[in-house]
User: What shape does this take?
Amino acid sequence: MFETLTERLEAVFKKLKGQGRITEENVKDALRQIRLSLLEADVNYKVVKSFIASVQEKAIGQEVLTSITPGQLIVKIVHDELVELLGTTHTQLTLSGSPPFPVLLVGLQGSGKTTTIAKLAYMLKRGNKHRPYLVPADVYRPAAIDQLVTLAKQINVPCYPSEQSDNPVDICKKAVQEALRSGCDVVLIDTAGRLQVDEPLMEELQKIKEAVHPSDILLVVDAMTGQEAVKVAEAFHERLDLGGVILTKLDGDARGGAALSIKAVIGRPIKYVGVGEKIEDLEAFHPDRMASRILGMGDILTLVEKAQETFDQKQVEKFEKKLKKNAFTLEDFRDQLQQIRKMGSLESILSMIPGMQKMKGNPALQPDEKELIKVEAIINSMTRKERLNHAIINGSRRKRIARGSGTTVQDVNNLLKRYVQAKKMMKRFSKMGKRKSFGRGDFPFPM
Amino acid sequence: MTEEKKGFFKRLRSGLSRSREQLNEKLETVFIGRKEIDEETLEELEEVLITSDIGFETTQTLIDSVRKRVKRKDIDNIDQLKAAIKAEMRDILRHCEGRLPFDDLPIAPYVIFFIGVNGVGKTTTIGKLAMRLKNDGRKVVLAAADTFRAAATPQLVLWGERAGVEVITHQEGSDPSAVVYDAIQSAQHRLAEFVLVDTAGRLHTKKNLMEELKKMCRVADKVMPGAPHEKLLVLDATNGQNAISQTKMFHEAIGLTGLVMTKLDSTAKGGILLQIADQFHLPVYLIGVGEKPEDLQDFSAEDFADAML
Ligand SMILES: Nc1nc2c(ncn2[C@@H]2O[C@H](COP(=O)(O)OP(=O)(O)OP(=O)(O)O)[C@@H](O)[C@H]2O)c(=O)[nH]1
Ligand SMILES: Nc1nc2c(ncn2[C@@H]2O[C@H](COP(=O)(O)OP(=O)(O)OP(=O)(O)O)[C@@H](O)[C@H]2O)c(=O)[nH]1
Ligand SMILES: [Mg+2]
Ligand SMILES: [Mg+2]
Assistant: This one.
């Protein structure tokens, strides 16, 4: 449905290609695309605005690494900033003081509170670390109590026998006593769904809070939530001083911008995510995954990161010097090849490069993994002398190399031809005198 | 967290609450008709529209069209601006104002499936509708075809008791298609006019669950050729852009016949409906405005557009 950010940035990348530094001018288009992408992910309008401003501040003046384009660098900066905002470490449920620890789950109607209570209990119980106790405090929605009681039975965890005619505050007070008596240490309280503008029901939550002094209060939010997320989180936080957030229904295709909006306005960590309807479908929150998801970009970051890892700056400089002197040997050719292989299979690298996805079906552009292995074997079968000076590789040497590498003379000839072509291409680049990127499909290989 | 980061959050947070207070004021001044329309006004309008979940593109389309009219001096004060935007929204929404053929049923029992992602309000909507129909003296059967979620059946049964209508139930974990089969047959025997089928919440991205839904449709058609007569997708107004993906994929899977939007009593505006109306041309039949039996209304383009600005 949505174009991916990666696709959209293609055009921007093209314009930016060959520019060595990020300036206010060249960053504008990229930021516009990023803004659009964040809005489509349902990140709140205001949050997007501040975010873009802060990214721009960070990006301007940055040097662009040889191996990536300025556009890619911007995306990387955006991503890193997102990860930092979303929280760099995983925060667990807060269980502090002396047991029993009451934990309160609150949120809008249908966000997933009841289901999440059961998931949390199951998680706590696993490994016999804790003895959870469930408390149905939703006396309003038809069969809400029944729902939690049923789940409690499924996971074999005790549950307070609430009645629909009971008062929720009383239920919670008594349940904590009951949990203590039965030797349970974590009291998970399921509250009714409510709108943040529902005054009486918000007051009820405050009363529950005062009555049981929760060790943690978590806001349960549907990952599909739109712009509204900010208002909801602010209101619940204002009333209850939340300890954190649980984001549910992340098993779908929602981009989940609400996560960023909420984190930005209340500053509390997202502790867990719901990834399915089953009891075991609760996971720790991963800021980096979330950041990529919100940006709607899969793998370009991986590419950028791999490029950064693989092409360290010194090596690049050494390489460039060689280029200038036109001293690009078969050995360099092989090194470069190994670098590419280090970055993963060619197929996967291709798919990470903007614009390349479209070419995927094109057989002429299909990189041949086997071919690359062959090329490497051939170069490995050469003597060092041959690698440094290809001109000495005559007919008998070719035969020997072919035998040594398990290939044919034809293969060796082909490789040498390609190498000479590549060398010519390198020369052209070096004449242009620009720091040229090697990260974007310009490899002098049979691609 | 670094100092710098704290700064960002703090700035943002105070900015947001400030903007929240100001926005109303601003809109008042903006829309009261005194202020002139400049780019700043249009930017404020953009904010209002986007924060209503209308989506970036629709927002741009709306703003571009008024911008042109402002240039032509077609619009020169804010009242006119507001009216113009509302009129455009109404135009988009008008052709999806729909009414179910309750007063003139083409066939009986009239089988209606309620479908949607988890927690949007399917069961509650069925409960409310059952009460409305029952109050109008109609004969209704409910089908508890969510056999998956804990206590989904008891939830529908309670609504059935409230409404005083029959609910067909099976064991938890049983085949939902079998519930559909029984419910339609039972309705035929009892000469009921409606079968309202409650399906389990399912994310549109789950292949096996979409297959299950298709099977339920096939089974309905087997017992009663032509059934289900309506396949209504229930959308939650607090959802953002994902509602488009929901509509698209449910529509592709089973061919929807209409929409219901719930939770419009929240502060969310459900602006995504504009884009959905525009893109899929599906009628919107009902809206949910609360959890009580009476909180179910017919959809009105006029009212909906009015609530947007
Ligand atoms: N796919 C998916 N569904 C979920 C997830 N978490 C909860 N659900 C489903 O969402 C629906 C609502 O969940 P509940 O736990 O009843 O939500 P709630 O917040 O307790 O709802 P109310 O009490 O009515 O306000 C159910 O169908 C759940 O099975 C999740 O992580 N993924
Ligand atoms: N405020 C408000 N709440 C609503 C509305 N419609 C439903 N709800 C509430 O939303 C929650 C979920 O409603 P359900 O009817 O259980 O939703 P569902 O789609 O059947 O959920 P699953 O079967 O679990 O997928 C309940 O707490 C309802 O009371 C509405 O129009 N406004
Ligand atoms: Mg609940
Ligand atoms: Mg239901």
Q: What stands out?
A: Residues B 122-123, 146, 152, 198, 201 surround magnesium ion (ligand 4) (CB under 6 Å).
